[in-house]
């Protein structure tokens, strides 16, 4: 069978071609060096130029994080740097693990402001409005185009904070018409400690909000490849604070889910959860509520909020890469060939590709489509916390003439 995702020559302007143009609005770099100082210097060597205005990075949690922060701060000489730890990186060559990938934004094409949220549990609408007002005021002085029509926000959250819904809802209300997307930080599938980076160091139980203004056309998007089945499961007993479901259909949650998928409880693991997800229906759309693990008491922990009375629909996967290729084709039709797609791709999607032995094909598709990003513990789209999606922003390569 012919491979529908052939190899790509690489992303223009990256180190792989070795002919980076000073005028490129976005540059990308990747380092696979385990030493943080060497990795930071390698990134700076590829991204550094006089008009570098901001650096966004995604890194393996295997790095000594304090040393990596110090090294990045030294390597980029005062250029603002933000990022997070991952459950896998998406580099110019596709899916990887154990390294660090970074994007350099040219100040002639992007005005960037960012802020750190350290107290996620106490983040309310008043604090959200103050934060967004501060971002807008800061960005307005350097704005390249009208803020409301030509800006988007990126959110990076501690992937194990259990505060995503509250933080995202309040931020979305404060952002108004400005579209937003983002991802929850990972830790190489250990589910122990995840971190975001801002203000020169890594932070747990925190979030980073990045506001980006540009004349380049862009589109914030999300997609998933899951389709509804007929089976329904009602949450009849839940621990909302800990995102645990104790009973489904008035039966022990793990047992009822195992019955649905036709496996013993002992066989339930992340690969099974990836192939047999559950979702909440809102209107005509289904939003996945991904299962994190089976607990000793027979309950199920979820990555998203759950509560008594919600109805979960069993889902089945359609072809993942074919769905993604169709999304990329639509973005190209609307924006032209993208300069870059910054993406948060749920780690359960990658796990599904690994199970199906299609990671290499997925990597070729991502490389050909100019995707840079990371595998996340949850995604964010227009104020919603979602699971098992590919969510991001596609940035066009030709500036808009409107409002210039």
In a few lines, what is going on in this structure?
The protein has 404 residues and is an alpha+beta fold. 25% of the residues lie in helices and 36% in strands.
Q: Share of helix among residues?
A: 25-40%
What's the rounded overall pLDDT mean? Answer: 90
Q: How many β-strand runs? A: 26
Proportion of beta-strand residues = 35-45%
The termini sit apart by 48 Å
Biggest sheet architecture = 8 strands, antiparallel
**Quaternary:** single chain
3D shape: globular
Specify the structural class: alpha+beta
**Regions with little confidence, pLDDT below 50 for 5+ residues:** 1-20
**What would you report as the Rg, rounded to the nearest angstrom?**
21 Å
How many alpha or pi helices?
A: 9
Question: What would you note in describing this structure?
Answer:
By secondary structure, the chain is of the alpha+beta class. 25% of the residues lie in helices and 36% in strands. It contains 9 helices and 26 strands. The strands form 4 sheets. Strands 14, 15, 16, 17, 18, 19, 20 and 21 form an 8-stranded antiparallel β-sheet that branches. A 6-stranded mixed β-sheet has the order 1-6-2-3-10-11. A 6-stranded mixed β-sheet has the order 5-4-23-22-26-13. Strand 24 (379-381) and strand 25 form a beta hairpin. The longest helix is centred in the N-terminal third of the chain and has 16 residues, at 125-140. The radius of gyration is 21 Å and the shape is globular. It starts with 25 loop residues before the first strand and ends in an 8-residue tail after the last strand. The model is unreliable at 1-20 (pLDDT under 50).
């Amino acid at each position: 069978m012919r491979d529908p995702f052939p190899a790509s020559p690489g992303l223009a302007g990256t180190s792989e071609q070795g002919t980076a143009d000073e005028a490129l609005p976005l540059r990308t770099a990747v380092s696979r060096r385990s030493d943080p100082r060497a990795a930071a210097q390698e990134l700076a060597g590829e991204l550094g130029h006089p008009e570098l205005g901001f650096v966004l990075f995604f890194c393996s949690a295997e790095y000594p994080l304090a040393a990596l922060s110090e090294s990045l701060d030294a390597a980029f000489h005062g250029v603002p740097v933000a990022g997070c730890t991952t459950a896998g990186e998406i580099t110019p060559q596709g899916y990887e693990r154990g390294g660090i990938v970074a994007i350099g934004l040219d100040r002639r094409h992007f005005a960037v402001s960012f802020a750190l949220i350290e107290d996620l549990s106490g983040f309310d609408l008043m604090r959200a409005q103050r934060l967004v007002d501060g971002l807008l005021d800061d960005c307005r002085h350097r704005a390249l185009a009208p803020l409301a029509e030509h800006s988007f926000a990126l959110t990076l959250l501690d992937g194990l904070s259990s505060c995503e819904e509250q933080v995202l809802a309040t931020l979305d209300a404060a952002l108004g018409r400005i579209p937003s997307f983002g991802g929850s930080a990972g830790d190489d599938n250990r589910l122990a400690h995840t971190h975001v980076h801002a203000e020169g160091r890594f932070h747990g139980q925190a979030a980073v909000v990045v506001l980006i203004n540009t004349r380049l056309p862009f589109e914030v998007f999300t997609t998933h490849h899951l389709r509804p089945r007929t089976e329904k499961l009602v949450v009849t007993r839940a621990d909302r604070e800990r995102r645990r479901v104790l009973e489904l259909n008035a039966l022990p949650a793990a047992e009822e889910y195992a019955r649905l998928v036709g496996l013993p409880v002992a066989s339930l693991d992340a690969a099974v959860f990836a192939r047999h997800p559950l979702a909440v229906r809102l209107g005509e759309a289904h939003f996945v509520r991904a299962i994190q693990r089976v607990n000793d008491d027979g309950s199920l922990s979820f990555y998203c909020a759950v509560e008594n009375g919600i109805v979960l629909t069993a889902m089945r996967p359609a072809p993942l890469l074919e769905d993604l290729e169709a999304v990329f084709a639509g973005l190209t039709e609307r924006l032209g060939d993208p300069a870059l797609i910054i993406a948060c791709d749920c780690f359960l999607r990658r796990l599904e590709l690994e199970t199906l032995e299609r990671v290499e094909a997925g990597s070729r598709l991502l490389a050909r489509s100019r995707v840079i990003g990371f595998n996340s513990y949850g995604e964010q789209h227009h104020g919603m916390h979602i699971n098992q999606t590919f969510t991001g922003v596609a940035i066009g390569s030709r500036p808009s003439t409107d409002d210039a």
